[in-house]
């Protein structure tokens, strides 16, 4: 248990200690991080294809991902609705700008599925040298977490800015706790250990990280279920943000999960105006920090 925790926390902490002052270095980290995500998903696809009794495992992935998505999404929506009712976010009415193409954003998300499927198809060949995928994914995971730590440290957010933005912090806490509650319900429905449900719910929409970490901890079935669960959350957010953002701003941010500080930020900004940006960044930062820590703790 402690060795697994160390594998996750040590590179994340070391990365967080590295401060970069030049834009070139930050861009290099960003591009390398994106590349590592594709590499690890490709390796995850290979590992999935090498499983015994493959057809039954594919059904399990679909079942787990569907139940977890529905439970977590429902729990988040209910908790965010109560937050909106208790602490409404009143803003001056404004005209929405045209949001980025939803089709383009959906395509960007689905490219990751394509890489996973490509690895899966290669794994079906059964070539003996493909068994290196498990060890290679562990090495790539350490590199990925190191880069994540660097990115979080150099995101431009400090503790004072986070604590001063109560709205973003409140939304993040509501999303974090309600998602865990939804994960417990899903685990009970599926007959999984509660700790597994809590770990799977701790991805908070960060599909490129949750699938990788949970594959390392529980194997490719649970890891793939986590990936598709969090991917479905992002796709739902892309579709719902323009509808919700004028009347239910906290819900629009909350549904984005950890991606409210990066992938979904342009949609939030164009639909909700500049005033929504600070809360969205703080919300995404906190969930991005919590996700690997909670997954490490629950696994």
- In terms of quaternary structure, the protein is single chain
- Report the end-to-end length measured between terminal Cα atoms: 8 Å
Radius of gyration: 19 Å
Total number of helical segments?
13
Helix content: over 70%
Return the average pLDDT rounded to an integer: 82
Low-pLDDT residue spans: none
Rough shape?
globular
Main sheet?
none
Class derived from helix and strand content: mainly alpha
H and E string: HHHHHHHHHHHHH
Number of strands: 0
Name the beta content range.
under 5%
Describe, in plain words, how this protein is organized in 3D.
- With 299 residues, the protein is mostly helical.
- 78% of the residues lie in helices and 0% in strands.
- It has helices spanning 2-16, 23-49, 54-86, 102-123, 133-153, 159-164, 166-190, 194-201, 207-218, 220-244, 249-256, 265-272, 277-298.
- The longest helix has 33 residues, at 54-86.
- The radius of gyration is 19 Å and the shape is globular.
């Amino acid at each position: 248990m402690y060795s697994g925790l160390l594998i996750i926390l040590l590179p994340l902490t070391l990365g967080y200690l590295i401060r970069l002052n030049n834009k070139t270095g930050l861009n290099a980290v960003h591009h390398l991080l994106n590349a590592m995500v594709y590499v690890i998903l490709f390796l995850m696809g290979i590992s999935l294809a090498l499983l015994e009794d493959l057809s039954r495992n594919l059904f399990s992935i679909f079942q787990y991902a569907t139940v977890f998505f529905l439970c977590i999404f429902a729990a988040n929506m209910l908790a965010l609705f109560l937050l909106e009712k208790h602490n409404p976010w009143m803003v001056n009415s404004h005209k929405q700008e045209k949001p980025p193409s939803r089709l383009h954003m959906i395509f960007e998300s689905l490219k990751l599925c394509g890489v996973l499927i490509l690895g899966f198809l290669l794994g079906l060949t059964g070539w003996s040298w493909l068994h290196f995928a498990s060890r290679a994914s562990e090495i790539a995971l350490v590199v990925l977490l190191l880069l994540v730590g660097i990115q979080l440290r150099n995101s431009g957010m400090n503790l004072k800015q986070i604590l001063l933005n109560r709205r973003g912090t409140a939304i993040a806490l509501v999303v974090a706790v309600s998602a865990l509650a939804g994960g417990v319900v899903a685990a009970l429905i599926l007959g999984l250990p509660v700790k597994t449900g809590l770990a799977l719910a701790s991805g908070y929409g960060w599909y490129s990280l949750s699938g990788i970490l949970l594959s390392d901890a529980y194997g490719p079935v649970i890891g793939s279920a986590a990936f598709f669960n969090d991917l479905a959350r992002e796709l739902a957010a892309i579709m719902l943000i323009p509808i919700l953002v004028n009347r239910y701003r906290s819900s629009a941010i909350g549904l984005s999960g950890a991606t409210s500080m990066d992938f979904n930020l342009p949609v939030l900004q164009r639909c909700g105006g500049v005033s929504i940006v600070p809360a969205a960044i703080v919300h995404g930062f906190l969930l991005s920090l919590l996700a690997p820590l909670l997954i490490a703790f629950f696994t």
